[in-house]
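INTERNAL TRANSFER SHEET
From: sequence group
To: structure group
Subject: GTR2 protein

Please process the attached sequence and return the structure record in the designated field. Keep the field labels unchanged so the import script can parse them.
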Amino acid sequence: QVFLVEKAGRRSLFMAGLMGMLISAVAMTVGLVLLSQFAWMSYVSMVAIFLFVIFFEVGPGPIPWFIVAELFSQGPRPAAIAVAGFCNWACNFIVGMCFQYIADLCGPYVFAIFAALLLGFFLFAYFKVPETKGKSFEEIAAVFRRKKLPAKAMTELANLRGGEEA
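Return from structure group:
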């Protein structure tokens, strides 16, 4: 997994995982809706579940931990990771506690809610999440500020990288 992250990049794997999960959630919804008409739709649903898990393990499972660790400098990093962990487990708890009630309410369309959320997450990642592969904290922070690094910092980065242009 780490080799794949270093080779493909965090953002691209995250977005590929989200899109794969979105397609899998739509396939699960279609499979559940058409199950009463076509018995073979149970196989579609099963394959969609396996693909959902695979895409989660490629992108949205591990990648946020890489990104959180790289978005914050050494001082606030432990607090940021603690907040990210709390949010992660709180959302897992909420989904775990509420899923059965939502499934009872929505029937076979329960995964359409996940598909809609995944579309929102994908759009957010596309427009707001920078690629952090091979970038220093200063470069990532500059992306968020939407301006270039000062000339002095650019020179220092070039010197650290062996004289190549930053």
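Handover comment: The radius of gyration is 20 Å. Residues 14 and 59 are 4 Å apart (CA to CA).
Transfer complete.
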